[in-house]
C-alpha cells in the first residue's frame, strides 16, 4: 500500500497503482491508515476507491452491477480530476484508467436497464427527467472534465504538460458520443481540438507508444470527416493512416477501417481496390463491396440500385449510406463512357443516345423510344456532372447534344488501384 501513496508523492504510475484503482481487483496488501494521509483530496480518493472495491465484491459479483458502483466510480474519477489540477503528465495514466473503468460500468448498467425495460420492468420516466439519463450521459460529463484538464494545462515544461494525454480522453468521448448517436457533440469536440491544434502535441508524438489509441483516433477522425462532414479527402487520409498504422493481420479492426477506406478512396481519389487482392486479404470487406466494384467496372446502375436497397440498413448503421449514394455518380460516369465508345460518334453525342444508355443501365431493359421528360432529366444530370468536373465538355440545349473534350473527356472516372490491395 505504501507504493500507492508513493506514486502520488513522487509522481509516477505503475501496475500497483493501476490495480488499486480497478474495482474488480483484490484489496491491497498491507494496512492503510487513511488518517495518516495528509492530503484531504488524496484521502477521499483512497476512501472512495476502497468503497468501490467493497461494493463490487459485496453486491455485484452475482447480481450484476449496481447504481451505487457507478456513483462510487464517478466520484472516484471526480476526485482524481481534483487531484490532477496542478499535477504533471504522469497523472493522465491513472485518470485514463479511471475514466475507461467508469465507461465500462456505464455501458453495462445501460445494457441492464435496457433489458429490464424490454421485460416490462423499470419503465421509462418522462423525457427530461434527470434521473432517467443514461449512465453514459452522466459518465461523459465527468470524462469531459478530465479532457479539459489536459487540454487547458499551462505547465511551461512541455515534457510535464498534461496535454500529452488529451487524445486518450478524446477517443473515450468520441466513443461515447457514437454510442449515444450524438453527432453534434462529436462536431463540437473536433472543433475544439482543431482550434487548439497549434498548442497540442501531434497525435503521432503523443501516442507513439500506444499504437492502438493512435489507430482509434485516426479511425474516429476518418469517420467524422467522411461520414458526417462529407469531406472525403480528409476522411480518406485519416482512414489510410489508420490502415497503415494497424497490425496488418487482417483482423476485425482492419475490416472496420477498410469499410471506410474503400468508399472514401473511390470518392476522393477515384480508386477502387483489385478484387482478387481484396478477397485474399479482407474477404469480409470484399463480400460487402464486390458488387459495387463490379458495377463501377461495367456501369450497371440497376444492380447498384438493388445492392443499395438491400444494404440500406447496414450502410445507415455504418454511417456510409450518403457516401454510397454519391458513388452512384461514378457508376453513371462509366455508363456514359461506355455509351460514347458504343456509339462511336466522336465528341458530339445526341442526348437521345445518352438517355437511352442510362435508361437501359437503370432497368436492364431495351429502350425503343426516349420520352421528352427523360431528355430533360438527362440534361440536368449531365449539367450536374459537368459542374463537378466529372465531364470535360458542355451541353447544347438547342441541339439536344453533349459535346465533350477530344482528350480525357472523363477525368474522374474510377479505376483500379492494386498496390497492396488497398488505395
UniProtKB/TrEMBL annotation:
It comes from the Eukaryota. GO terms for molecular function: double-stranded DNA binding; RNA binding. It holds the Pfam family PCI. Residues 313-406 form the PCI domain. InterPro entries: Csn12-like (IPR045114), PCI_dom (IPR000717), WH-like_DNA-bd_sf (IPR036388). Belongs to the CSN12 family. This is LANO_0G07162g1_1. It comes from Lachancea nothofagi CBS 11611.
Amino acid at each position: 500500500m505504501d507504493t500507492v501513496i508513493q506514486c502520488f508523492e513522487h509522481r509516477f504510475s505503475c501496475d500497483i497503482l493501476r490495480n488499486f484503482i480497478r474495482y474488480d481487483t483484490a484489496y491491497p496488501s498491507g494496512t492503510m491508515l487513511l488518517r495518516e494521509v495528509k492530503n484531504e483530496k488524496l484521502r477521499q480518493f483512497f476512501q472512495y476507491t476502497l468503497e468501490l472495491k467493497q461494493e463490487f465484491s459485496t453486491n455485484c459479483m452475482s447480481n450484476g452491477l449496481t447504481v451505487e458502483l457507478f456513483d462510487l466510480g464517478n466520484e472516484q474519477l471526480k476526485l482524481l480530476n481534483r487531484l490532477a489540477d496542478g499535477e504533471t503528465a504522469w497523472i493522465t495514466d491513472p485518470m485514463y484508467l479511471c475514466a475507461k473503468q467508469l465507461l465500462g460500468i456505464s455501458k453495462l448498467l445501460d445494457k441492464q436497464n435496457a433489458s429490464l425495460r424490454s421485460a416490462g420492468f423499470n419503465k421509462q420516466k418522462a423525457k427530461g427527467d434527470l434521473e432517467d439519463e443514461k449512465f453514459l450521459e452522466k459518465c461523459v460529463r465527468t470524462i469531459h472534465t478530465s479532457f479539459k484538464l489536459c487540454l487547458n494545462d499551462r505547465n511551461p515544461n512541455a515534457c510535464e504538460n498534461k496535454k500529452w494525454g488529451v487524445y486518450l480522453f478524446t477517443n473515450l468521448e468520441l466513443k461515447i458520443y457514437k454510442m449515444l448517436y450524438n453527432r453534434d457533440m462529436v462536431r463540437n469536440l473536433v472543433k475544439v481540438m482543431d482550434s487548439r491544434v497549434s498548442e497540442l502535441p501531434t497525435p503521432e508524438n503523443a501516442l507513439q507508444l500506444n499504437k492502438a489509441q493512435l489507430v482509434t483516433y485516426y479511425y474516429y477522425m476518418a469517420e467524422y470527416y467522411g461520414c458526417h462532414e462529407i469531406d472525403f479527402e480528409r476522411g480518406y487520409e485519416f482512414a489510410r493512416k489508420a490502415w497503415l498504422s494497424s497490425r496488418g493481420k487482417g483482423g476485425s479492426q482492419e475490416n472496420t477501417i477498410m469499410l471506410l477506406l474503400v468508399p472514401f478512396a473511390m470518392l476522393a481519389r477515384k480508386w477502387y481496390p483489385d478484387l482478387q487482392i481484396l478477397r485474399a486479404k479482407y474477404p469480409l470487406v470484399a463480400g460487402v463491396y464486390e458488387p459495387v466494384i463490379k458495377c463501377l467496372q461495367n456501369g450497371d446502375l440497376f444492380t447498384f440500385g438493388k445492392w443499395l436497397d438491400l444494404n440500406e440498413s447496414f450502410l445507415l448503421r455504418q454511417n456510409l449510406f450518403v457516401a454510397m449514394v454519391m458513388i452512384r455518380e461514378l457508376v453513371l460516369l462509366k455508363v456514359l463512357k461506355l455509351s460514347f465508345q458504343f456509339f462511336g460518334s466522336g465528341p458530339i453525342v445526341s442526348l437521345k443516345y445518352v438517355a437511352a444508355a442510362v435508361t437501359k443501365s437503370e432497368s436492364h431493359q431495351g429502350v425503343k423510344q426516349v420520352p421528352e421528360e427523360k431528355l430533360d432529366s438527362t440534361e440536368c444530370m449531365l449539367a450536374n456532372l459537368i459542374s463537378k468536373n466529372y465531364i470535360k465538355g458542355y451541353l447544347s440545349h438547342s441541339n439536344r447534344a453533349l459535346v465533350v473534350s477530344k482528350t480525357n473527356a472523363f477525368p474522374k472516372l474510377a479505376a483500379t488501384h492494386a498496390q497492396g490491395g488497398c488505395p
